[in-house]
Amino acid sequence: MHPCLEKILLNEDEIVARCKELGQQITQEYKNNEQPPLLVALLKGSVPFLAELIKHIDLDIQFDFMDVSSYEGTESIGDIKIIKDLDCSVKNLDILLVEDIVDTGRTLKTVKAMLKNKGAKTVRVVTLLDKPDRRVVDIEADYTGFEIPNEFVVGFGLDFNQKYRNFPFVGVLKEECYK
Ligand SMILES: O=P(O)(O)OC[C@H]1O[C@H](OP(=O)(O)OP(=O)(O)O)[C@H](O)[C@@H]1O
Ligand SMILES: Nc1nc2[nH]cnc2c(=O)[nH]1
Questions:
Q1: Which ligand is nearest to the CA of 172?
Q2: Which tens digit of pLDDT belongs to each residue from 7-28?
Q3: Is the pLDDT reported for residue 100 higher than 70?
Q4: Which residues contact 102 (CB under 8 A, 6 or more apart)?
Q5: Mind listing the pLDDT tens digit for each residue in 121-153?
Q6: Of 8, 10, 95, 121, whose CB has the highest number of CB atoms within 10 Å?
Q7: Which of 152, 156, 159, 166 to probe ligand 2 with, by most ligand atoms within 8 A of CB?
């Protein structure tokens, strides 16, 4: 057990099992679509979730990455900046945006609007985690792994000051480690 870990909220088996369910659901819902979706994953937190999810999507999908920034430490710093844009065009494509967590909803709302502006045909969202109690803008994911309480979590891609992304579970740190 890592010395900074207070508790595990979701263990690896639970996360993998839920990714399998989400992958199967996405497969069913897109299988009769004209084209498979382009998965757009937001760096860096969504990488472990994307890696697990795509194993369970039985379609000829492709994926690309965007990097936007909104957080410093545990608090939002307002404006969302594009740090890395997509390599490919989204024009007339069905986009499945892959997020690790929806918190205030600001990132999702902004990125969804950006993709629509670039001509995406549809934009749906899959998120590993949702914190509905923290929402400040009216937006929901189309597919959610787990709703979690209003606690700052790390692991399975989620960081505190860039650390702990490699935990294979989602957990909460001891108070003294959030410093
Ligand atoms: O719903 P919101 O309040 O907008 O917050 C959610 C966003 O915040 C985190 O990103 P962050 O900017 O920390 O980047 P990271 O994925 O590189 O950690 C997380 O990955 C989401 O993208
Ligand atoms: N690591 C991490 N990033 C977040 N961004 C928004 N909420 C969270 C959270 O609970 N943990």
A1: 2
A2: 999 999 999 999 999 999 999 9
A3: yes
A4: 108, 125, 127, 129, 130, 131, 135, 139, 140, 141, 144
A5: 999 999 999 999 999 999 999 999 999 999 999
A6: 95
A7: 152
With a 6 A CB cut-off, is 71 part of the ligand 2 pocket?
A: yes
d(CA 46, CA 72) in angstroms, rounded, equals 17
CA of 71 to the centre of ligand 1 (A): 6
Which helix H or strand E contains 82, and what residues bound it? strand 75-84
pLDDT of 75 > 70? The answer is no
Tell me: pLDDT of 37 over 50. Answer: yes
Helix (H, G, I), strand (E, B) or coil at 12: helix
Q: What is the ipTM of this complex?
A: 0.96
Respond yes or no: is residue 58 known to be catalytic: no
Domains by residue range for the chain, with CATH: 12-153 (3.40.50.2020)
Task: Identify the active-site residue in 103, 130, 138, 142.
Answer: 103
Percent over 70 (pLDDT), the chain: 95
For ligand 1, atom 19: residue with the closest CA: 101
Phi, psi of 112 (to 5 degrees): -60, -45
**What CA–CA distance (Å, rounded) separates 81 from 69?**
5
Rounded-to-integer distance, Cα 176 and Cα 178, Å: 6
Q: 145 near 18, Cβ under 8 Å?
A: yes
